[in-house]
Amino acid sequence: MQLETVLRRLPGLQSRYNIFTHHINKVTEINDPPRGKNDALKGLLAAVKDNISTKNFGATTCSSRMLKDYKAPYDATVVNLLRDSRAVILGKTNMDEFAMGASGLNNGLGGGPVINPISDIEDYCPGGSSSGSAAAVLADLVDFALGTDTGGSVRLPAAWGSILGFKPSYGRISRFGVIDFAQSLDTVGILAKDIGILRKVFSVLDKYDPRDPTSLTDDLRDQLTKSHITVERDTKPKIGIPKEFSLSSLTPEMRQHFLTYVGRLMSLGYEVYPVSVPSIKHSLIMYYILAPAEAASNLARYDGIRYGSRSIAGDMDEHNTLFGSTRAENFGPEVQKRIILGNYNLCSASYKNNFIKAQKLRVQLIDEFDNVFNFANVLTGNRSAPDGIDFILSPTNIGGPKTIKEETSIESADELSAYATDVFTTPMSLAGLPALSIPVQNGTPLGIQIAGQYGDDQRVLDFAASLY
Ligand code: GLN
After folding, report:
1. Domain 3-218 class?
2. Where are the domains of the chain?
3. Which of 39, 70, 203, 351 has its CA 20 to 30 A from that of 144?
């Protein structure tokens, strides 16, 4: 993409869609001119979600008042890798506050949400939480964008923007410098229109990082390469659809598109099977116990003393502490709700009943996934299923985006329905599986999710590329 052309279009698009929290205005503002240890991403423009640390390049706000002035003292590993490969970073993207949200309406900076560029007339929800990253790609301002996906936040906005959104296996891309939401689930993901560009970016970022203790080691990466050679076969991949994914919850339009897609795959000669992964039906509950619990503990550091904007409230008494008013003033309502939910599930009365149970169910879910895939899980050491499937197919979401007006009236009526949006994406997050959302067809804001066994990222991308 041509930087000069993009810079001409940017102000108009930014004021209409509110895509960036920070962006460059002139070519001369490119921070840290591409230093280029290699040319892998030369000529490509990138956007980076604003929970990914950038030094000397705007603040790193997580779209929260709490971090509105936070200047990161270092660059995230992914930012360094992009610059080393000569990508140019155009800006930091707007998001749901601290990456909590699915519709994309939880912006905490006060400037309103990102508006989905899928329509220039109506204001549609962008999908979250990587809403600005999806919008930047959809509006042709960048060739690709980085987002983060904890329970669906790359895949959902990709689906609602009719673009590609890839959440790799947990641990493949470094989280060093990515501000934690729920660190056992947080994964950096890539959004793009072009599968070739997405793959190039993935190959640049897919590296062991000694600064991230959860980064997949080189030994395990070697083991994965060997497993790939063993599964290379002449037969077409087998596809499974978990019975536990209820298609009756889909909007009629999504159901129609999904069935048509499955029909198309079958006519292309792919074998499609029903499979059973029983714990899928508990995934939403597991996720909404575990993610807020991790978040509550991570967000404890924002007290206005160690981190975070300090409250300016005057009189402090024993009920109105600096800590309390800092958090009440600077965290938005969704973040506060998650902190309460997380702490509730961590307190001694509910810890055993909720938190520990959810952890056990998570292990069970991973074992059940291991039972259906024909590719062995290098982390669990479970055997692969010899006649198992290669990929799992599902819708990415229940349906397409609503207008912001509609969504705000629904959310206020039924706050929990917002959490149900993640029903198809959270199982893959809990098991750390690679999952890609691809548009049902060009320009339609509905996605199909293709997921593979842990570590089988390359084949998920190969398969998606073969469908184009
Ligand atoms: N919608 C989910 C949540 O609100 C997922 C968010 C994410 O993946 N960051 O927690």
Report:
1. alpha beta
2. 3-218, 286-337
3. 70
Among positive and negative, which fits the CA dihedral 368, 369, 373, 376?
Answer: negative
Q: What is the pLDDT of residues 10-68, one digit of tens each?
A: 999 999 999 999 999 999 888 666 677 899 999 999 999 999 999 999 999 999 999 99
Catalytic residue among 130, 153, 174, 279: 153
Residue 126 to residues 86, 105, 115, 119, Cα–Cα distance (Å)? 29, 8, 6, 10
Q: How many CB atoms lie within 10 A of CB 298?
A: 18
Catalytic residue at 279? no
CA–CA gap between residue 371 and residue 443 (Å, rounded): 36
169 belongs to the catalytic site: no
pLDDT tens digit sequence for 391-402? 999 999 999 999
Determine the 3-state secondary structure of 391 from DSSP.
strand
Residues with CB under 6 A from ligand 1: 99-102, 129, 149-153, 181, 291, 422
Is there a contact between 34 and 105 (Cβ–Cβ < 8 Å)? no
Alpha carbons 74 and 217: distance in angstroms, whole number: 23
Helices (H), 121-251: 131-138, 155-160, 195-205, 218-231
- Provide the Cα torsion 275, 456, 440, 101; round to 10°: 90
